[in-house]
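Chapter summary example.
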Amino acid sequence: MPKQKTRKCAAKRLKRTGTGKYRHHKAGGRHLLTGKSAKRRRRLGQDGAIGKAERRRIKAALPYGL
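The structure predicted for these 66 residues follows.
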Protein backbone atom coordinates (compact mmCIF):
# COMPACT_ATOMS: atom_id res chain seq x y z
CA MET A 1 0.00 0.00 0.00
CA PRO A 2 1.53 3.36 -0.97
CA LYS A 3 1.86 6.17 1.52
CA GLN A 4 -0.86 8.81 1.61
CA LYS A 5 0.08 12.35 0.69
CA THR A 6 -0.43 15.31 3.01
CA ARG A 7 -2.21 18.31 1.51
CA LYS A 8 0.47 20.95 1.96
CA CYS A 9 -2.02 23.82 1.71
CA ALA A 10 -3.81 22.47 4.79
CA ALA A 11 -0.57 21.70 6.66
CA LYS A 12 0.62 25.30 6.29
CA ARG A 13 -2.66 26.87 7.41
CA LEU A 14 -3.83 24.70 10.30
CA LYS A 15 -2.56 23.74 13.74
CA ARG A 16 -3.75 20.80 15.79
CA THR A 17 -4.49 21.31 19.48
CA GLY A 18 -3.72 18.83 22.22
CA THR A 19 -7.32 17.64 22.29
CA GLY A 20 -7.36 16.91 18.53
CA LYS A 21 -9.22 20.01 17.35
CA TYR A 22 -7.87 22.21 14.55
CA ARG A 23 -7.17 25.96 14.70
CA HIS A 24 -6.78 28.44 11.84
CA HIS A 25 -5.69 32.06 11.41
CA LYS A 26 -8.59 34.50 11.01
CA ALA A 27 -8.86 36.56 7.85
CA GLY A 28 -8.85 40.34 7.81
CA GLY A 29 -6.18 41.10 10.40
CA ARG A 30 -3.28 42.14 8.18
CA HIS A 31 -4.07 45.57 6.76
CA LEU A 32 -6.62 48.41 6.92
CA LEU A 33 -6.62 48.01 10.70
CA THR A 34 -7.20 51.69 11.51
CA GLY A 35 -10.85 51.41 10.50
CA LYS A 36 -11.47 48.43 12.77
CA SER A 37 -12.29 48.67 16.45
CA ALA A 38 -9.76 47.59 19.08
CA LYS A 39 -12.05 44.74 20.15
CA ARG A 40 -12.24 43.47 16.58
CA ARG A 41 -8.46 43.73 16.11
CA ARG A 42 -7.91 41.69 19.28
CA ARG A 43 -10.32 38.99 18.08
CA LEU A 44 -8.61 38.83 14.69
CA GLY A 45 -5.29 38.15 16.41
CA GLN A 46 -6.61 34.98 18.02
CA ASP A 47 -6.87 31.64 16.26
CA GLY A 48 -10.29 30.47 15.09
CA ALA A 49 -11.65 26.98 15.61
CA ILE A 50 -12.61 24.62 12.79
CA GLY A 51 -16.23 23.49 12.93
CA LYS A 52 -17.43 19.92 13.17
CA ALA A 53 -18.62 19.90 9.57
CA GLU A 54 -15.11 20.56 8.23
CA ARG A 55 -13.26 18.16 10.54
CA ARG A 56 -13.74 15.07 8.38
CA ARG A 57 -12.39 16.83 5.29
CA ILE A 58 -9.35 18.09 7.20
CA LYS A 59 -8.57 14.67 8.64
CA ALA A 60 -8.50 13.32 5.07
CA ALA A 61 -6.21 16.17 3.97
CA LEU A 62 -3.83 15.54 6.89
CA PRO A 63 -3.66 11.75 7.20
CA TYR A 64 -0.65 11.81 9.57
CA GLY A 65 -1.69 14.81 11.62
CA LEU A 66 0.58 17.84 11.85
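To summarize the output: The chain has one domain: 8-61.
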